[in-house]
């Protein structure tokens, strides 16, 4: 089979079994891989509690992985979030996806719970469940170092072992499945790591067309100022956004009380370059190399983490921000949720932690030690416990990232419609509202945003299922990726067909959530954004969000999606009508 391997590996840790099975071709053609395939494979188990042993943890690559298609050495990790209760997917780069495909797999599904700590070792013709007692309790760099001779490693740190609901899974010590706490799902299975290696080659139906399509994509990348411009993400990484968000007066500051931090330049992209002279880093064979690392290979913070350990906590100490980011990477924590939880805690107490205190507090979270026991709850549960639930800046319990919604109304809507919670990536309206790609929109208007968000969600779901990097859309489009997919698989795909597949995936995720009790009541922002203005200045006025217009645009979104007024489905048999 061209593009796909057609194979899933099902591992039951409780029974100690592993079995390769054929994936029906229709599922591959209609859900592609990555996020889409993983979400479809959840169909029979999405009602299970997130930490139930029978809840699957799925790693799924896409049909372009293993081919020369740019930005396609990625996979999605899919399960149900212990932080939010929503269906949860995380798109991850690095080398792990490439090795999983080279082991002959489109997907790995892990269920059950090992009686003792385990490592799952996968090769093309061999699967072993190994004892990992000596690795339990060790950080991610030590775990990767112990296993790297056997292949590419996906591991959890102490945070995942300790069930922190925003624990991450880290691939080869670099790229992470951060949001939603899937590291805690892996920890509940007593699974310390998955190590995979292989030598199988992914074949393409039309190598000549694939090479042409690849050249088209690279040409568009090179023409994109967002990607390869003097201030592009290839040059400075995502922290190049620090100065832009400050200029737009939408930097979340002091737990989102204000939207401007006058000292944010201390941790901007240029500041990081001056302090660390970083080298380029990134996913396997990716031309963009957007991540940055020190000369010693230590990952430097990306925009979200830099801004949240910075402005959100009132900190301008770059060294402290880098140290906090390193603790998150080493112990396996989502930096966005960790920093946002500290911010909620600080506002409730009336005093934010100092720069010098933050790295130790993050370590306490991962180890559930001292004050970290409370902080490990995440911002919603912490704020409820402390009697101030309104101070958790989250949607569906997922902490908001570093774009204040009062400065971008499409972002305000997208935070609420995202099926995994307060997420900027499922629609990423920052692309058009701030970066002006593919066309600029008025960031202080809700007009047309419901339709724009719907199209963007469908597009990004398709990209996550290919599985390719959404940064590619700053230069290329679904048109070029449809051509890449056609060349790889020999099946005719158009941009319209890819968007329809994306729509199917988004609606499936929403159906799962509605079946688990989510509805319109959960598609809402914290009250702060409707009642308090942002920080106006430099000719920019940041008022509170108009509650009535927000509700009207949410109604429009539901109508476009074919949902009822509660944001759910009148047809209880909706899933049965899908492939």
TrEMBL record:
Its cofactor is [4Fe-4S] cluster; tungstopterin. Keywords: 4Fe-4S, Iron, Iron-sulfur, Metal-binding, Oxidoreductase. It comes from the Bacteria. Residues 4-200 form the Aldehyde ferredoxin oxidoreductase N-terminal domain. Belongs to the AOR/FOR family. This is Aldehyde ferredoxin oxidoreductase family protein. It comes from Oryzomonas sagensis. The lineage of its organism: Bacteria, Pseudomonadati, Thermodesulfobacteriota, Desulfuromonadia, Geobacterales.
């Amino acid at each position: 089979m061209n593009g796909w391997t057609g194979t899933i590996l099902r591992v039951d840790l409780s029974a100690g079994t592993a079995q390769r099975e054929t994936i029906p071709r229709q599922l591959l053609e209609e859900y592609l891989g990555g996020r889409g395939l993983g979400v479809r494979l959840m169909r029979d188990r999405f009602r299970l509690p997130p930490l139930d042993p029978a809840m699957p943890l799925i790693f799924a690559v896409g049909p372009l992985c293993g081919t020369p298609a740019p930005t396609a050495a990625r996979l999605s990790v899919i399960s149900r979030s212990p932080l939010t209760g929503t269906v949860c997917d995380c798109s991850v780069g690095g080398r792990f996806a490439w090795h999983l495909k080279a082991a002959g797999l489109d997907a790995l599904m892990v269920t059950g719970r090992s009686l003792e700590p385990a490592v799952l070792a996968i090769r093309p013709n061999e699967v072993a469940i190994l004892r990992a007692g000596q690795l339990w309790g060790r950080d991610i760099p030590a775990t990767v170092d112990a296993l790297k001779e056997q292949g590419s490693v996906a591991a959890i740190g102490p945070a995942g072992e300790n069930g922190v609901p925003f624990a991450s899974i880290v691939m080869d010590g670099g790229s992470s499945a951060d949001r939603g706490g899937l590291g805690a799902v892996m920890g509940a299975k007593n699974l310390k790591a998955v190590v995979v290696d292989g030598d199988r080659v992914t074949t393409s139906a039309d190598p000549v067309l694939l090479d042409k399509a690849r050249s088209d994509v690279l040409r568009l990348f090179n023409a994109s100022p967002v990607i390869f411009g003097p201030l592009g993400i290839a040059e400075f990484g995502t922290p190049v956004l620090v100065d832009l968000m400050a200029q737009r007066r939408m930097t979340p500051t002091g737990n989102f009380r204000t939207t401007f931090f006058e000292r944010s330049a201390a941790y901007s992209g240029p500041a990081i370059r001056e302090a660390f002279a970083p080298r380029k880093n990134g996913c396997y064979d990716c031309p963009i190399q957007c991540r940055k690392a020190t000369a010693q290979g230590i990952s430097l913070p990306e925009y979200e983490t830099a801004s949240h350990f910075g402005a959100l906590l009132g900190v301008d100490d770059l060294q402290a921000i880098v140290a906090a980011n390193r603790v998150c990477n080493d112990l396996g924590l989502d930096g966005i949720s960790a920093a946002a939880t500290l911010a909620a805690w600080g506002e409730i107490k009336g005093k934010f932690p100092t720069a010098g205190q933050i790295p130790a507090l993050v370590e306490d979270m991962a180890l559930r030690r001292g004050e970290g026991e409370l902080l490990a709850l995440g911002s919603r549960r912490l704020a409820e416990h402390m009697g101030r639930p309104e101070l958790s800046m989250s949607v569906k319990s997922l902490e908001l990232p570093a774009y204040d919604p009062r400065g971008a109304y499409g972002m305000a809507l997208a935070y609420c419609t995202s099926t995994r919670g307060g997420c900027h990536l499922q629609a990423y309206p920052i692309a058009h509202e701030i970066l002006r790609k593919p066309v600029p929109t008025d960031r202080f208007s809700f007009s047309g945003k419901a339709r724009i968000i719907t199209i963007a969600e469908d597009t990004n779901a398709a990209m996550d299922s290919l599985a390719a990097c959404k940064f590619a859309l700053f230069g290329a489009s679904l048109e070029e990726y449809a051509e890449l997919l056609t060349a790889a698989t020999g099946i005719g795909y158009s941009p319209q067909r890819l968007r329809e597949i994306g729509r199917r995936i988004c609606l499936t995720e929403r159906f799962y959530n509605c079946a688990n009790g989510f509805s319109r009541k959960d598609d809402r922002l914290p009250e702060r954004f409707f009642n308090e203005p942002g920080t106006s200045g430099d000719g920019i006025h940041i008022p509170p969000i108009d509650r009535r217009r927000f509700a009207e645009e949410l109604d429009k979104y539901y109508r476009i999606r074919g949902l009822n007024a509660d944001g759910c489905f009148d047809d209880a048999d909706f899933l049965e009508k899908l492939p």
